Amino acid sequence: MDTEMLIGSRFEAGTETEEKILNPKTGATILDLPEASHAQIDAAVDAAEKAFVSWSMTTPAERSGYLLKIADAIEKDAGAFAALESLNCGKPINAARNDELPAIVDCWRFFAGAIRSMQATVAGEYLPGFTSMIRRDPIGIVGSIAPWNYPLMMMAWKLAPALAGGNTVVFKPSEQTPLTALKMAKLLADILPEGVVNIVLGRGETVGNTLINHPKVSMVSITGDIATGKKVLVAAARTVKRTHLELGGKAPVIVYDDADLAAVVQGIRAFGYYNAGQDCTAACRIYAEDGIYEKLVADLSSAVSTIRYNDPDDTTNEIGPLISKRQRDRVASFVERAAELKHVEITTGGRAGSDEGYFFQPTVVAGATQDDEIVRREVFGPVVSVTRFTETE
Questions:
Q1: Is 89 annotated as catalytic?
Q2: Which of 43, 144, 177, 233 is 20 to 30 A from 199 (CA-CA)?
Q3: 92: which residues sit within 8 A by CB, 6+ positions away?
Q4: 268 shares a domain with 231
Q5: Beta bridge partners of 385
Q6: What is the pLDDT of residues 29-62, one digit of tens each?
C-alpha cells in the first residue's frame, strides 16, 4: 500500500500530525498517515511553479497523449484501484469496479479528446485593421481539494481538465480517504513530467487552508459543503484567485398523480440511496401529489427496505456504510429530530444498521413539510423525505 506524498519527483512522508485512516465497514484502523508540513506544501507549490514553465507550452496533442496514457494505466490496474477504493470508502466492490472505474477511465479519455477540439471564437474587426479573437491560455497552478465520497472519481474530475488545459496541480485528497490518491501518485509520476502533479496529505483546516491562501496558487478547485465554499471565496478574494466550487445539494423529485409509480419507485430506490446517499445529487427530496402520495410512500418504503447492505458477501451489497462515526451520528440526528415532529412518520429504517462499522439503515421520512429541516438541509446519508402537495405552485 502506497503511503508517501508526491512532491516534484520525490516521494516522502508527511512530518506533522498523524491521521487515522479507517475502514468504514468495521471501524478498524487501516493505517496512520502524517500530514504535510508548511515546508512540504511550499515545496509542492514550487515544483508545480517550475513545471508550469514547460508544461504550459506543450501542445494540446502532447497533453492529450499524456492523458490517454494515464487512462490506459488506470484501466490496466482497475481491479486493484477498485479494491483499494472499496477498502478506504466502504463502497460495495461492484460499485467501485463496475460503475466508478469505467467512468474514471472515460473521464481521462474525454478530456484527452476535448483538448484537441477547443474552439476559439473570432469576434471580428472592431477597429479598422485589427481582428479581435478569444485565446485560451493556461491559468497557472491549481490547488485542488477533493472530498471523501468519490475520492478517485473526484481526482479525475479535478486533474484531467486542469492538466488538459496546460495547468499544473497541487492536489489534496480528503484526509479520510487518501489511499487511492497515493496509488495514483505512483502512476502519475511514471507518466507525467516532474512537478506537473503534486499530492500532499492533511486536513482541510491546516493543509487545505494553506493551499487556498498560498500566494503562488492561481486557482482553487474544491468540492465540499457550502460553509467551506464561503471560506474559499473569502481567501481567494485576497489574491484574486479563480475558484471552482462544487458544493452541497438537495435534489428534488416532483411526482404527479399520473406518474408511472413503479418507475418512480425504482428510480428513487436507485438514485436516492446510491453511495449510501453520500452524493450531492442524491434524489433525496420527494414531492408527491395528493392522489399518489399514500401509494408512493407505501411502495417506496417497501422497496427501500430491501436494499442490501453489510452482507458478508460484498458482491451482493447495494450500498456501503457512511464514511465515519461522525457522519453516521450526524445522519442519525437529522432523522431523530424529524421523528420528534407529530406530522412525520419514519416508514422504514431510521437507525444505525450494525454494531460494527458506520452503516445506517436506508430510511424513508414521510409527511415532512417544506419548512422541516429534513427537507431543507442536506443530510448526506441514505435518507429520503416525502412531502405531499396539492397545487403545482
A1: no
A2: 233
A3: 86, 314, 315, 317, 318, 319, 320
A4: no
A5: 285, 365
A6: 999 999 999 999 999 999 999 999 999 999 999 9
Residue with cell 477498485: 82
The reply to whether 259 and 234 lie within a common domain is no
Cβ–Cβ < 8 Å for 383, 284: yes
* Cα–Cα dist 255/385, whole Å: 13
Active-site position among 89, 107, 280, 284: 280
Cell numbers standing for residue 188: 502519475
- How many whole angstroms separate alpha carbon 301 and alpha carbon 278? 19
Say which CATH number the domain at 285 has.
Answer: 3.40.309.10
What is the Cα 165 distance to its own chain's centre? 21
Nearest to 214 by CA among 56, 46, 53: 46
CA distance 41 to 47: 10
Q: Determine the structural domain holding residue 317 and report its residue range.
A: 251-389
d(CA 113, CA 36): 34
How far apart CA 154 and CA 157 sit, in angstroms, is 5
Q: Is there a catalytic annotation at residue 246? A: yes
Residue 352 φ/ψ, nearest 5 degrees? -60, 145
Share of residues in the chain with pLDDT > 70 (%): 99
pLDDT digits (tens, 9 = 90+) for 233-243: 998 998 899 99
Do residues 151 and 183 touch, judged by C-beta distance below 8 A? Answer: no
C-alpha cell at 9: 519527483
pLDDT digits (tens, 9 = 90+) for 93-144: 999 999 999 999 999 999 999 999 987 677 788 888 888 888 889 999 999 9
pTM, full prediction: 0.95
DSSP string, 48-81: HHHHHHHHTTS-HHHHHHHHHHHHHHHHHTHHHH
The alpha carbons of the chain give a radius of gyration, in whole angstroms, of: 23
Contact assessment for residue 185 and residue 173, using Cβ atoms and an 8 Å cutoff? no
Q: 215, 246, 277 — which closes off a domain?
A: 246
- The C-alpha cell 472505474 sits at 101
C-alpha cell at 361: 439503515
Task: Give pLDDT tens digits for 151-177.
Answer: 999 999 999 999 999 999 999 999 999
Q: How many CB atoms lie within 10 A of CB 354?
A: 16
325 SS3 class: helix
